[in-house]
Amino acid sequence: MHVTLVLTHECNLACSYCYTGEKFRKDMDWETARRSLDLAFTEHKPRVPWATYEETPIDVGFFGGEPLICWDMLVRASEEARARAARDGRKLRLAVTTNGTLVTRERAEKLRELGVEVTLSLDGNRAAHEATRPQKGGRSSFDDVVAGAEHLKAAGLALEIIAVVAPQNVAHLGDSVRFLVELGARNVILNPCFEEAWSDDALALWEKGMADAAEVYADCMRAGRPVAMPTFDNKLLAAAKGGLASCDTCSAGTHEVAVAPSGNLYPCARMVGEDRDPKLVIGHLDAGVDEVRVRAMPRGPSDPACEPCEEKWRCGASCACANLAETGTTNMPGGTQCWYEQASARVADAVGLKLLDERNDTFIAWTYGRVQAAADAVRARMEPSATAEPKGVRRVRKLPIVQRA
Predict the structure, then answer these.
(1) pTM, whole model, 2 decimals?
(2) Separation of alpha carbons 301 and 340, rounded Å
(3) Does residue 385 carry a pLDDT above 80?
């Protein structure tokens, strides 16, 4: 169970697309944070079928608002989680998502000392970022975020970046991905903004931007220094496996829960918002997760129009938050998400086939090596006499990319 502590509803930025609603100063107190850790340690369960209880880390995240506004609470909760894990002999994963503006040299070093993985929100180059992520009051936040990124790198932390792709900044997408790679990002997560209305012209720019970003992805492979880009990796891994695995689908409420400062529980951090929508609440720290509410949450994609789609076998439109953003439901993807799933598959397949034609060893090891490692891990835990293919790597359909590997 990945448990996220939403430390505050306050934020120092005024992002144009923000899904968390009104910003106000309501912070998580220590009692709520302590009980959130209780939840993480007691509701712990493996995310994938072949992982054992002991191998699966306790997974605790920090979110907001901007979580570094509550720096002291983040440090205290992290130290408590580390102490509990050491006492119980358990593995622990700590993570924070931050806008980076409050990262100083000292804080970056402390995050490294605590073993906190950092995901930084930076929407790309200066033009892209300034189009969508100003400070409150309108001042640019770009220089502050880049400074935060440099502090993280100097402290020895891997640079993982989330860049939100929105109509206001999509024209800069290719250049933005190249900028982020040159900044030192080892993982570039292009997070589509399904909350926004996308015109046909904006969608055309988006596909061109993805194609440009795919060239950056390919250049990294050619240089022997791969950079993770889930937009492409997820499609290519699904193609190599022959379909999505069970662990690739939405885990909201089942293996993921977020705790609001009030103690209310939500299926994931993005659903907390202002903590004013009881329809999305799945429990409270006083009573724990309400499994009836979790099971009652509609999951998708469940649109009948999905049935004949050639990309259904590796479609990522099961994300309850993405569906909620576009259609107001947790199980129905909208037209933009449908377009994105097909367009990203086209772009990913094109760059994957190109790298295979080049016999790029880095790409082959990066993509097929991870699939083989997962399959080997499953088989190692099966009875010697078992002949069935492990659950989660069942081949649904072979694409050319699989046949040519």
Answers:
(1) 0.90
(2) 14
(3) no
